[in-house]
Amino acid sequence: MYLIFALSAIIAPFVFLVLLRMSALKGMSLSAVIVIAVAMLFWGVEGNVVLSSVFQGIHKTLTILWILFGALVLLNTLRKTGAVDRINQGFQSISGDMRVQAILVAFLFGGIVEGAAGYGTPAMVTGPLMLALGFRPLAAVTLALIADSTTVAFGAVGTPITVGLSNLAGADKVFFDEVGIKITSMDIFAGTFIPFIVVCILTMFFGEKRGFRYALPMLPWTLLIGVTYTGSAILYAHLLGHEFVALLGSLTALAVATFTAKKGFLIPKTVWKGALQKNFNVNRQKSEMRIVTAWTPYIIVVALLLMTRIIPWLNELTLTLIDFSWRDILGVEGVTSAWEFLYSPGTILTVAAVLSVFLHRKNLRTFGSAVRDSLSTMKITAISLIATLAMVHVFVNSGMNTQNFLSMPEYIANSLASSLGFMWPFVAPFLGELGAFITGSATVSTLTFSPIQYSVASQLGLDVNTVLALQLIGAGAGNMICVHNVVAASAVVELSGKEGDIIRKTLIPAVLYGLTIGLVGFIAFHFML
User: Fold this and answer.
1) Residue 472 and residue 436: Cα distance in Å, rounded?
2) Which of 137, 153, 163, 501 is the most buried (most CB within 10 A)?
3) Is residue 143 pLDDT above 90, yes or no?
4) Are 520 and 182 in contact (CB under 8 A)?
């Protein structure tokens, strides 16, 4: 019975959003009420812990809304300066095929943003960019979420590994690099197919000309791009460690994808534009803006994200100079929400938007207009996110109770471990997905479940690093379906209220990813190791 109570944070959102097709505003509000009631009535969580967790969710919502605002204001500014038209023309010069564009933007450019920033930023950047390129809104956000998966374990310069595994005994740089190598080795099969899966979802669910037959001709090229990413990821993990795998792997694959697409190598001759918005017209008038100038704001974003994370003095400055973090909320020790303002991707995106006004020789009124447009898009999202994150933090903080129970996520993990020992290599990635689905973070999922994964692996005599790699890969796949990522990504393409429709589409590849990597893990342990 207590397992059912613990699973309420998973069951309620699934029923309300996916089965009953409620909006996130209504569905997550109801889910939050249910989980809070369960926590107080059955788990023994006291009112002050619940209230501090709700305030933690509200504060965390502000940090996400700031990133959302930055992504929107940058895109809207670039629309008004004409940079988006020039970027669109640049993609047309590479390929007018939307299947190719989806891989270039969602998987490869998104992978670069993931490697530099993480924290759900890629979908908030690539979704609206694809929208501006003519993709239908539902297609843009769905593809952005699915594509942001393989690179997630190495996101934000390796944060899911360095922070997610930091609470394990003996965690150091050598250990992190060893797990990183395991991730790239285990993911070479599933990760290689993600570009093709992106194309399959695009052609099977969106547009007038739908069907697998429109995806199949892209199989050779997508496999080339997938192998380029996963193969180079293994190389970079061995040579440089875990920090720059996503960034350098995506850059390498982007170079190959751009070159081969321009040459038409392995690209079908028939151009597919089935997911194009109705009445969408590409501006054919040749822009006077250079393509490098149009892309410069995004280059600035990636550069600033990297500099603030790898240059020691700049990293310390941005983490400490303006700190809006709220520690020990309402006096409850350990209930904390971090918001280092200058370190936030939202600040960097906003700075890039301001700089783009001067780079593109416009006046500041352009930025002001972009701000107004961006704020009008975010109205409903704030409430949806507050409900979602309040539920999440009550769920995660439920270990602070009067009955000496484990927290709900730990209770779920232990219940699974006790009954599925032999199958654990198959189960491990789904535990990672489960954590990411609820918490919205591969880092938090790994931080929560890595001690359990470590303990189960040790008890069963399994290779610990491999089990932890399965956890991290699964957490990356869970990024496709985590509720607050879906809510935020929906908002940037003005699809608030359609979150259930999006999860129904991203759920398919998320489950397939988990099944594939779970099967690889099971075979590796029981037939190869």
Assistant:
1) 10
2) 153
3) yes
4) no
